[in-house]
């Protein structure tokens, strides 16, 4: 199965059929993503099957900052008081595609964009606020670390870049 990853175009992409099993996340795409894009507060990227406009997954990225004291000491050491970051604000995959390893592929797509963006604008961490414990476990499986006993997780962008290097 081949998927195309591209910036959201609400005039072209068909958003109504996405059903990730998380209605709030699906509704955000349909009702708020275009507005967030227009206000320049988040960028949304969608996954479509090759040669189709039906959205089967998406993620949104936004600028963010973290307080150094909120970070785990092992990864916060040496950071300024306020640490630039990229927020992975949303990540959703249609339920029909879940359980096939595609969630990890969608996350990797998002993280590749984060690494590319940090070639132009500095950021030290990628941050995610997991919706629930299952989502937090998914992110931990992909190298994210929890901030204390919360559903907020972080990963150093330098670690992401190394993990995404070919070979």
Q: For the CA atoms, what is the radius of gyration?
A: 16 Å
Instruction: Tell me roughly what share of residues is in helical segments.
Output: 25-40%
Total domain units:
1
Low-confidence stretches: none
Alpha-carbon distance between the two ends: 23 Å
Q: Roughly what is the average pLDDT, rounded to an integer?
A: 94
Report strand %.
25-35%
Q: What is the chain-wise order of helices and strands?
A: EHHEEHEHEHEEH
Quickly name the level 1 CATH class: Alpha Beta
Give a quick account of the main beta sheet: strands, pairing sense, barrel closure: 7 strands, mixed
What is the assembly state of the chains in this entry? single chain
Q: Would you tell me the structural class of the helices and strands?
A: alpha+beta
Summarize it:
Strands 1-2-3-4-5-7-6 form a seven-stranded mixed sheet, sandwiched between helices. 31% of the residues lie in helices and 29% in strands. It has one domain (3-164): 3-Layer(aba) Sandwich (Aminopeptidase).
How do the helices and strands line up, and which of them pair or pack?
Layout: E1 3-7, H1 23-31, H2 33-38, E2 43-49, E3 55-67, H3 73-76, E4 82-93, H4 102-117, E5 125-129, H5 133-141, E6 145-146, E7 152-156, H6 157-164
Helix pairs in contact: 4-6
């Amino acid at each position: 199965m081949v998927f195309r990853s591209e910036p959201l175009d609400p005039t072209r992409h068909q958003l109504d059929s996405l059903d990730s099993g998380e209605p709030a996340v699906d509704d955000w795409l349909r009702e708020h993503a275009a507005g967030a894009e227009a206000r320049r507060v988040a960028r949304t990227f969608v996954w479509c099957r090759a040669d189709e406009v039906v959205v089967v997954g998406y993620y949104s990225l936004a600028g963010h900052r973290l307080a150094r004291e909120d970070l785990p000491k092992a990864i916060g050491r040496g950071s300024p008081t306020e640490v630039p970051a990229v927020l992975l604000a949303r990540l959703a995959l249609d339920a029909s595609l879940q359980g096939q390893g595609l969630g990890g592929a969608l996350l990797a797509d998002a993280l590749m964009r984060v690494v590319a963006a940090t070639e132009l604008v500095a950021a030290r961490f990628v941050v995610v606020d997991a919706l629930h414990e299952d989502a937090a476990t998914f992110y931990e499986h992909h190298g994210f670390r929890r901030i204390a006993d919360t559903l907020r997780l972080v990963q150093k962008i330098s670690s992401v870049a190394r993990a995404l290097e070919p070979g």
